[in-house]
Amino acid sequence: MKLPREFYKEDGISLAKKLLGKVLVHHTAEGVTKGIIVETESYMGIVDAAAHSYKGKKDGRCNIQYKEGGYAYIYMIYGMYYCMNIVANEEEVPEVVLLRALEPLEGIPLMEQRRKTAKRKALLSGPGKLCQAMGIGKESYGLDLCGDQLYVEEPEEKTAFEIEASKRINIDYAGEAKDYLWRFTIKNNSYVSVKVKQEIS
DNA sequence: CGGAAGATTTCT
DNA sequence: GAAATCTTCCGA
């Protein structure tokens, strides 16, 4: 069942935790792909030196962050990869949740074809990888997750899991903000991204 | 208009 | 550990 708008109207940290274990669904011309969200990170706009919208900055790229929760914020990084975020909270509050890793659930052959690999654990274990495998690109920027093309739904089988918090990854430039424990993973899930060296110190 | 850096991935 | 690779941003 598709998650309602209200689900997304929470602060970025609460939403990041709530999204774990949910299922990301993307309908494309080639087929449907689904994956269970197993790793997320929070980016808290105003107070977060690592966020694109730090200090309330607005530009062409992060405008969508200022919309109400439930929209897709897609951005390109290093000129070669896309990363997908989910906008949280109310309008004018630039908080987002970055999806870092998914566990393949449906449309796996299509993912393998897009990723050019048959290693299941390599399909969705990273922000750039999951966008490539799910077929998410600039045309998905700003999509309403309450629409029919790209959305998040409740898993059919609810399984119990523990949430683990750790430091965010690859944001060394962000000063103190890099030490915030705003990365959340499902404990003992083998599909989280490879770079899991950072632990709570 | 040009330089620099980046919420990454992949290979050695 | 380092390169690949190119879009976007910021300064001049």
CATH class: Alpha Beta
User: What is the CA-CA span between the terminal residues?
Assistant: 38 Å
Helix content: 10-25%
SS content category:
alpha+beta
Q: Shape from CA axes?
A: globular
Largest sheet: 8 strands, antiparallel
- By CATH, the superfamily comes out as Methylpurine-DNA glycosylase (MPG)
Q: Find the count of extended strands (DSSP E, 2+ residues).
A: 8
Fill in the CATH topology: 3-methyladenine DNA Glycosylase, Chain A
In short:
The protein is α+β, with helices and mostly antiparallel strands and 201 residues long. It is 16% helix and 29% strand.
Key terms:
5 helices; 8-stranded antiparallel sheet; DNA-binding; 16% helix; 29% strand; alpha+beta; globular; 3-methyladenine DNA Glycosylase, Chain A; 201 residues
Overview of the structural elements:
This protein is of the alpha+beta class. The chain has one domain: Methylpurine-DNA glycosylase (MPG) (3-methyladenine DNA Glycosylase, Chain A, Roll), CATH 3.10.300. The protein is 16% helix and 29% strand. The protein contains 5 helices and 8 strands; from the N terminus they run ααβββββαααβββ. The protein has helices at residues 5-8, 12-19, 108-115, 120-123, 127-134; strands at 23-28, 31-44, 72-77, 81-88, 95-106, 150-153, 163-166, 183-186. Strands 1, 2, 3, 4, 5, 6, 7 and 8 form an 8-stranded antiparallel beta sheet that branches. A hairpin with a 3-residue loop joins strand 3 and strand 4. Helix 3 packs across helix 5 (127-134). The longest helix has 8 residues, at 12-19. The mean pLDDT is 92. The structure holds a DNA duplex (12 and 12 nucleotides).
